[in-house]
Structure formats: structure tokens, C-alpha cells
Amino acid sequence: METEPDGAGTYAARARALTSADEARELYDAWAPTYDTDLAGPDGDDYPLPGIVADVVARLQDRSADVLDVACGTGLVGAALARQGFRSVDGLDVSRRMLARARARQVYHDLGPADLGQRVPGAADKFGVVTCVNAFGTGHLPRSALVEFARVVHRGGHVVLTVGDDRRDEIERHVQQLAARRVARVVETSEVLLHPSTGEQHVVAVLEVVASSAGVRPVR
């Protein structure tokens, strides 16, 4: 749930400067009506990331898996997962207006508002997969959110996330800490285009959760 190309204009600049959940809620509520077009462009083909992540999830998990789409925005990832045959997908986002647009797609089992900089709602060890696409940019989710992702995924499940260059090193260091604590391990990474029109890249990282929730504690 982040930014990009030229059509996003002022929203993109404001998104990079967010400092609180209240600011994020206000910004994304305002952006919701044009968000899809701003990201994907007028022809709808300039934001392939949701489909790429859905392809990864489909390769890793049975279609019966419970999936949590964190920072789901308007539901682009949920729609891509539905095209792959996933039917048990929940979504969380800070913006109620984004959630309203996601709900209209009718591809989510459950949707709810959440300050994702805090605790992720949901029972421990519940999900087979957590997806988090384009939500670790500057001003967005804290690195500590990864610990919460691991908490709600059962052992042997996966976290599939994307991160851009602005926070790549920081997130990689945090993932290394999780691996050292035997909470989660990296099973694969790849570089993909965030927007073909700009050539900007994101890393898609797949983590396997190797600890039950009892072994998952916050990392400072």
C-alpha cells in the first residue's frame, strides 16, 4: 500500500512523509478513488506486483490455504489471489475507504481496519500465508511488523513481502535477526519491476516461518 508513478502526484509525496497511522488513514482515505489507476496507469498494466506475488503464493501453497493480505489497500492482491483459485483470503488496512473498495471486489472472506504498525489482529498460527505488497516504503510499516506476520503464520507457512531500495538494507538486516533467532528463514528472493514505465524495482522475498507463535517475540 504505497505509491508511485506520475499520476499519483501529491499523494505519492505525502505517502513518503507519513509519520503516524492517523496520517496514513487520512491520506489513503483521500487517495482511494483514484489509487488503482494511479498505480496501474491508464492502460491498467503498469503495476504487475500483485499478480507476481499471487503467482509466488500459488507455487508455495495449496489453494485451500488461509491467506492474510496485510495492507491490502483496494484489494489488488486479493483479486490476483482469487484468479489463482484462493478462496480463504482475509485483508487488513488502515484506511476504511480502501477497505470499502476491496470489499466491492468480493474476493475476501473477511476485511477489517487495523493500525498495522502495532499488533496484527488475528489468532496466532492461524494463516498459511501472509502477503505484504508495497507497504514497507518510507513512512509506512515498521520493520517490527515482520515479527507480527510470523506470529500469525503457522510453522511451515510463508510470508511473501516486497520492499523497495529505500528500505531494502534495513529490512534485510531485520530478516537476518529473525533467522538468527530461528523465527523465520529466507527461502527465496527475486527482483521484479514495480512499474515497467519507470524501471523501478522491488525485491520479492519469501520467508518460511520455522517457529510456533510461542517462539515469536518482538525484535528491537
Automatic annotation (TrEMBL):
- List UniProt keywords, sorted A-Z: Methyltransferase, Transferase
InterPro entries on file? Methyltransf_25, Methyltransf_Superfamily, SAM-dependent_MTases_sf
Please tell me whether the keyword Thylakoid is annotated for this protein.
no
Q: Which residues form the Methyltransferase domain?
A: 67-157
Q: Name one GO molecular function term.
A: methyltransferase activity
Please indicate if the UniProt record lists Kinase as a keyword. Answer: no
User: In Gene Ontology terms, what is a biological process of this protein?
Assistant: methylation
PANTHER family the record matches: METHYLTRANSFERASE, METHYLTRANSFERASE DOMAIN-CONTAINING PROTEIN
What is the name of this protein? Class I SAM-dependent methyltransferase
